[in-house]
Automatic annotation (TrEMBL):
PROSITE patterns: HIS_ACID_PHOSPHAT_1 (PS00616). Keywords: Hydrolase, Membrane, Transmembrane, Transmembrane helix. Residues 584-593 have a biased composition (Basic and acidic residues). SUPFAM superfamilies: Phosphoglycerate mutase-like. This is Phosphoglycerate mutase-like protein. InterPro entries: Acid_Pase_AS (IPR033379), His_Pase_clade-2 (IPR000560), His_PPase_superfam (IPR029033). The chain crosses the membrane at residues 53-76. GO terms for molecular function: acid phosphatase activity. PANTHER family: MULTIPLE INOSITOL POLYPHOSPHATE PHOSPHATASE-RELATED, PHOSPHOGLYCERATE MUTASE-LIKE PROTEIN. Residues 1-47, 527-593 are annotated as: Disordered. Residues 560-582 have a biased composition (Acidic residues). It comes from Cutaneotrichosporon spelunceum.
Length: 807
């Protein structure tokens, strides 16, 4: 038989003929051959149908068998079966035939082709668990952001990344006010428990339409425009960010923190007694992946069989203490006031940038919101793509303003100035107290999910607890736990940044921020308590003079000046400056006692705002006092009223609770503060520091007129706090009078006389000429000037309280 494999019109057609014996090869034969007649079209179709019918039957039979097998396999797997066990039982010839007919659909993407457990692992002895937090002589400060490129500004020594607020990468904070202490366990103490609270790592922007993605849409819809100069990159710029998910850098943050946690606290695993630790997180993708990446660093891969991960639903209508705003309908009602406060500050710090950048846009009018989004793009692109061209558009002063913008937002949205803050932080505080006392919760009146509070999902007798949450929770816990050193300046002014500002969001809520509550057992020696406001006459907002400060810009005196001689807070923001130093601890023998302390981003936090917690250079508080205060704070927090009640959401609050709780208590405190201030001996003519720093937040929180608050600050020798208030009312006689007095108390005779001249006349100072003579008398330290100044301050406070009776 022969067949033709090329068209007939080819001159050299090759034909093959099958030999008479099977052993003969197929040989080409050239020349004339007898040609068989071609079949007719009709007969060809009949032959084709006859040949196709058997194959069709076979194919349908095989497909039917496969469908039955697949349905059975799906049902089997859905009910917990292992398909690999079935595959192993299929005879090899059948598997070979199936592969030859249907092929390997997985191919190179099938993990089965790449087994990892093939033996030959070599020796695998395990070492002892690390305990760096106990054994280290010193701790390095973490500031790594590799492989991100650190952006630069107009000032070389300025670290922009530290001024992105809650979008800053995590770093070790040098001090929250306890400069001589660190996260290391103090001498003569042993660590019993660690309660670790962890924010997710760096992420893409949220899906909020007013976020940075909106800038891209507005530019697309803005018609024909052209950018030049510093904005010329916008001509080819594309928005490349995702939404909500962790960035690769964010994943690395959590992995590295897991490694660090294992090196510091790994020895606690030896005390688990064959139990597995329970980590808790939420269903939101970045929360789940943060927990898994942290666990990969902490336990190593694979993590299976080394811990339990409890995943709680994060969605409106479901309770979880790690995203409590979903349980609090009033949470959304605070945001109109928040946006108004933030917008007021944006007009101040972005005025120059708005005008400057508009010059580079032809055919498109930049809004202030566009400029804010450009600033947002800098941190978001940097943590996602490693670099952003938006960063260099702004000066270091404007980045300081951006940081303060975030501080204002968090103050009013979720912290001391938010009436729902303590209610939303209540659930986690209840859980912390239950774990500290090893007592299961029995009352569920907050965001706690009672369904998951049992011995399995919420153990209370472990040495190690790890929870994963959002930046919002960290902001809420500051007022919830009464960590008042962060509120020592009072509410944020909206026209300038105070000279020393303690509520810095990049320090308490950056990407991957973390907090540890350490439970310690200390023997042989312990700190001798220092008595103060936090005992008798305790005040729930009380603070200490241990405050971390930030030298900032946008003081009205130099907001329009290009001169900036202050040092960058990369070094100075953790230096407490004029802070009154801690008295040296005196130690005395004592029985073993248990203490609590809080570590926030590697630095201990002063706990003197917590009732019963003594001033201590290591931040220690006896656990009985700590727990007792927690119970008091829990009892003072009305979740139902704060989250479901009707009240004034715009009212100024200082303790994270609705004004209906705070107002009577705050107004009653004014008389007590006045009595305390003027019950002391006359202060020096030129004080070097506030007389009682614990009074600062109490005075700032009073629902009084700002001039009353300013006068009380001045009577407390707090020159800066008084100046921050009165400078906003320049030209008003009472403000000018206090301006003159505070400069005199600074020792600045020239400026004091200037403000007395500008004041002209005042009810308390009808003769400015005599006031100027008194300035000279104070400079000479004439006899009797100290007592006369004290009488002057007393009269000032009395007069403003009578004259200015409403806030």
């Amino acid at each position: 038989m022969s067949y033709r494999d090329k068209p007939e019109d080819l001159a050299a057609a090759e034909e093959y003929e099958l030999g008479t014996r099977d052993s003969e090869p197929l040989l080409p034969r050239y020349g004339d051959q007898e040609r068989l007649p071609s079949p007719s079209p009709a007969s060809a179709k009949r032959q084709h149908r006859r040949r196709r019918f058997p194959f069709l039957c076979i194919g349908l039979s095989v497909a039917l068998v496969l469908l039955c097998f697949m349905g059975s396999a799906v049902y089997y797997k859905k009910n917990g079966g292992d398909l690999s066990a079935i595959e192993d039982k299929i005879p090899a010839p059948v598997k070979s035939w199936a592969d030859s007919v249907f092929g390997d659909k997985g191919g190179a993407n099938d993990d089965k082709n790449f087994p990892t457990d093939i033996g030959y692992a070599g020796p695998t002895p395990t070492g002892a668990e690390a305990a760096l937090v106990v054994t280290a002589p010193a701790f390095p400060l973490y500031s790594g952001v590799s492989p991100l490129i650190r952006p630069t500004t107009d000032r070389e020594d300025f670290d922009m990344m530290r001024h992105w607020g809650n979008l800053s990468p995590y770093r070790s904070v040098k001090s929250h006010g306890l400069k001589e202490s660190s996260q290391a366990i103090p001498d003569h103490c042993e660590l019993e428990e660690i309660h670790w609270l962890q924010r997710h790592g760096a992420r893409y922007p949220t899906t909020n339409p007013s976020g940075p993605a909106g800038l891209s849409e507005r530019l697309k819809q803005g018609g024909k425009w052209n950018a030049s100069g510093a904005l010329s990159f916008l001509n080819d710029w594309e928005y490349k960010l995702g939404a909500e998910l962790l960035t690769p850098f964010g994943r690395s943050q959590l992995y590295n923190l897991g490694v660090a946690a294992r090196v510091k606290y790994g020895f606690l695993l030896d005390r688990m007694k064959d139990r597995l630790p329970v980590f808790r997180t939420e269903t939101q993708d970045r929360m789940l992946r943060s927990a898994q990446n942290f666990a990969a660093g902490f336990f190593g891969i694979p993590t299976e069989g080394q811990y339990h991960l409890e995943v709680m639903i994060e969605w409106p209508g479901f309770n979880t203490t790690l995203a409590p705003y979903h349980s609090c309908p009033n949470d959304l009602k605070v945001y109109p006031n928040v946006r108004a406060k933030v917008a007021e500050w944006e007009k101040v710090f972005l005025r120059k940038a708005h005008k400057r950048l508009q010059k580079y846009m032809d055919g498109y009018e930049l809004s202030l919101h566009d400029v804010v989004n450009m600033m947002d793009m800098c941190p978001y692109e940097t943590v996602a793509l490693g670099h952003s061209s938006f960063c260099s558009l702004f000066t270091h002063k404007e980045w300081r303003g951006y940081q303060y913008r975030n501080d204002i937002f968090w103050w009013y949205a979720a912290s001391f100035g938010a009436p729902v803050a303590r209610a939303e932080g209540l659930g986690w505080m209840q859980e912390l107290t239950a774990r500290l006392t090893h007592t299961p919760l029995t009352q569920f009146n907050s965001s706690v999910n009672s369904t998951l509070h049992n011995d399995i999902h919420f153990p209370v007798n472990e040495p190690l607890y790890v929870d994963f949450t959002h930046d919002t929770t960290f902001a809420q816990l500051l007022p919830t736990l009464n960590l008042t050193t962060f509120a020592s300046q009072g509410p944020p002014p909206l026209d300038h940044i105070p000279k020393k500002w303690s509520f810095v969001s990049s320090k308490f809520a950056p990407f991957a921020t973390n907090l540890q509550v350490q439970v310690l057992s200390c023997s042989a020696q312990r700190p001798t308590p220092v008595e103060g406001m936090n005992q008798e006459g305790w005040w729930p907002f009380s603070s200490t003079d241990e405050e971390e400060t930030v030298e900032t810009e946008f003081d009205k005196r130099d907001a329009d000046s290009d001169d900036d001689s202050s040092s960058d807070d990369e070094d100075s923001d953790d230096d407490d400056g004029d802070e009154t130093p801690e008295p040296a601890d005196t130690r005395e023998p004592a029985d073993k006692r248990r203490y609590v302390r809080i570590i926030l981003n590697d630095a201990p936090v002063p706990l003197t705002g917590i009732r019963g917690c003594k001033k201590d250079s290591d931040g220690l508080c006896e656990i009985e006092a700590f727990v007792s205060s927690m119970h008091t704070l829990i009892g003072e927090t009305d979740f139902a009223q704060a989250c479901h009640g009707d009240y004034d959401f715009n009212a100024e609050v200082m303790d994270g609770r609705p004004l209906l709780h705070a107002a009577p208590r705050l107004r009653a405190m004014a008389d007590e503060i006045v009595a305390k201030l003027f019950g002391r001996d006359p202060p020096p003519l030129e004080p070097k520091a506030p007389w009682d720093a614990a009074l600062k937040p109490q005075i700032a929180a009073l629902p009084e007129h700002r001039f009353v608050v300013a006068a009380l600050h001045l009577a407390n020798d707090d020159i800066y706090a008084c100046h921050d208030i009165v400078q906003a009312d320049e030209g008003e006689p009472t403000a000018d009078l206090m301006h003159a007095l505070l400069h005199r108390r600074e020792g600045d005779a020239f400026n004091s006389k200037y403000w007395f001249s500008r004041m002209r006349r005042h009810a308390l100072c009808p003769q400015p000429v005599e006031a100027k003579k008194f300035v000279d008398a104070c400079s000479r330290r004439d006899e009797g000037v100290v007592d006369k100044q004290w009488d002057e301050l007393r009269e000032l406070v009395s007069w403003v309280r009578v004259t200015f009776t409403s806030p």
